[in-house]
């Protein structure tokens, strides 16, 4: 099997799985019915994208594992998502800031992935882009509403942006698998997305009357499987049924 | 699942009436043929091969639609294989004029063109028509609705809450 391609696909799709799990966990807990439904819808889109990626990864691995095995039966160190998407829902400002900081990257990334010579990845990217542009519109809107809202909502959104900012740089960090895939003309060179990303993010923050964080200290590790402490709790929820009742099916 | 790319719809004439009986489980008035999710259906060695494409990646209706197609074909005496394809990606342009009318009758406003859709969903312009009274004096309640493909609106005149099928291009 093409191990680098397999790892590369997981690197893309684990982001959607973990963020999808975070948003899905809000079902029934959203601040209003409409927002609750929006979070669930975003989660559903992300899970749908994940299925396509994992089905493709399973085909490449060709070792008898299915999409479900890849989603449910890996150990923490084998998940390759960025640290940003596993951060907890401290409050609704954090939920929306996490979504926004990822959406902007996600759309830029998919725009490049769409041009891929790997037709499967290109097809998934084209499909996903349409959905993610709605996500970005939704999350940007909340950044502005809370940032440019009341004194309290402004403080909370600023706190969320300041706290999560440290995880943004990892989005543009290349792993060895990334570098190999880029050299083979399949991978997206994420380092080239960085300027455009901060430009777009900063524009929305300014419109939301929020301060652009100045901190130059950034955390990374998720892409190599080294996660923050939140990841274990998240996985124990995500994998609960498969751990408790191995091989269970609906 | 293999992800294939097909360039045009290719549906055997004999199969159209059978497939037209199958509807989206979440929008029962809308036939999957009018929805444009069936991309090809051909008979090969007595087996019907059907390719369907999802409206949204995570649309839970796709599995049910696949099963319903199998059932409808079986009742008509055909064995079948269903395949999900992603490319070219589904667009609301593939909903037929009849499909749009069926949506409206069911209380779901049909998708606008891309630019107008954006203005409607950002609440910049009142252009989405109420499915109950026809007024365009409507407001956006939420960009996300009861299913992935819809947004929620409410009419300011007759107060009817209704769904709007989002433009996807």
N-to-C CA distance of chain B: 24 Å
What is the CATH topology classification name of the largest domain in chain B? GMP Synthetase, Chain A, domain 3
Largest interface: which pair?
A: A-B, 31 and 29 residues
**Structural class by secondary-structure content of chain A:** mainly alpha
- Counted by DSSP, the helix tally of chain A is 11
Total E-strand runs of chain A: 0
Query: Which word captures the global form of chain B?
Result: elongated
User: Radius of gyration of chain A from the CA trace?
Assistant: 18 Å
Over all CA atoms, what is the radius of gyration of chain B?
A: 17 Å
Which parts of chain A are unreliable, with pLDDT below 50 for 5 consecutive residues or more? none
Q: Low-confidence runs of chain B (pLDDT<50, min 5 residues)?
A: none
Any idea how many domains of chain A? 1
Q: Report on the biggest sheet of chain B.
A: 4 strands, mixed
SSE pattern of chain A: HHHHHHHHHHH
CATH architectural arrangement of the largest domain in chain B: 2-Layer Sandwich
* Overall tally of structural domains of chain B: 2
Helix content of chain B: 10-25%
Mean pLDDT of chain A: 95
Largest sheet of chain A: none
Assembly context of the chains: heterodimer
């Amino acid at each position: 099997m093409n191990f680098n391609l397999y790892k590369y696909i997981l690197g893309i799709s684990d982001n959607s799985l973990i963020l999808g799990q975070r948003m899905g966990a809000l079902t029934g807990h959203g601040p209003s019915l409409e927002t609750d439904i929006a979070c669930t819808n975003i989660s559903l889109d992300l899970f749908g994208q994940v299925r396509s990626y994992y089905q493709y990864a399973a085909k490449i691995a060709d070792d008898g594992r299915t999409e479900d095995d890849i989603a449910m039966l890996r150990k923490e160190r084998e998940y390759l998502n960025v640290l940003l998407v596993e951060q907890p829902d401290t409050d609704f400002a954090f939920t929306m800031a996490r979504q926004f900081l990822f959406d902007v990257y996600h759309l830029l990334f998919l725009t490049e992935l769409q041009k891929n010579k790997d037709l499967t990845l290109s097809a998934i990217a084209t499909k996903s882009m349409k959905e993610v542009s709605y996500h970005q519109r939704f999350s940007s809107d909340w950044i502005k509403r809370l940032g440019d809202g009341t004194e309290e909502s402004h403080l909370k959104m600023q706190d969320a942006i300041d706290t999560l900012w440290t995880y943004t740089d990892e989005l543009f960090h290349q792993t060895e698998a990334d570098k190999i895939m880029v050299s083979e003309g399949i991978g997206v060179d994420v380092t080239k997305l960085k300027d455009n990303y901060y430009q777009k993010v900063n524009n929305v923050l300014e419109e939301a009357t929020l301060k652009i964080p100045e901190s130059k200290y950034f955390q990374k590790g998720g892409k190599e499987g080294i996660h923050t402490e939140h990841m274990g709790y998240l996985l124990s929820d995500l994998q609960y049924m498969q751990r408790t009742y191995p091989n269970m099916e609906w | 699942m293999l992800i294939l790319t097909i360039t045009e719809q290719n549906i055997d004439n004999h199969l159209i009436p059978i497939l037209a009986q199958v509807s989206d489980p979440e929008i029962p008035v809308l036939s999957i043929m009018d929805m444009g999710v069936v991309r090809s259906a051909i008979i090969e060695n007595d087996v019907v091969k059907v390719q369907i494409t999802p409206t949204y990646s995570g649309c839970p209706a796709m599995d049910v639609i696949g099963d319903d197609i199998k059932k409808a074909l079986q009742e008509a005496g055909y064995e079948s294989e269903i395949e999900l394809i992603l490319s070219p990606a589904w667009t609301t342009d593939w909903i037929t004029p009849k499909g749009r009318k069926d949506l409206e009758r069911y209380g779901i406003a049909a998708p606008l063109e891309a630019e107008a859709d954006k203005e409607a969903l950002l609440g910049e312009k009142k252009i989405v028509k109420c499915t109950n009274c026809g007024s365009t004096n409507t407001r956006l309640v939420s960009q996300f609705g009861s299913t992935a493909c819809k947004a929620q609106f409410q009419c300011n005149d007759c107060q009817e809450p209704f769904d709007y099928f989002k433009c996807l291009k």
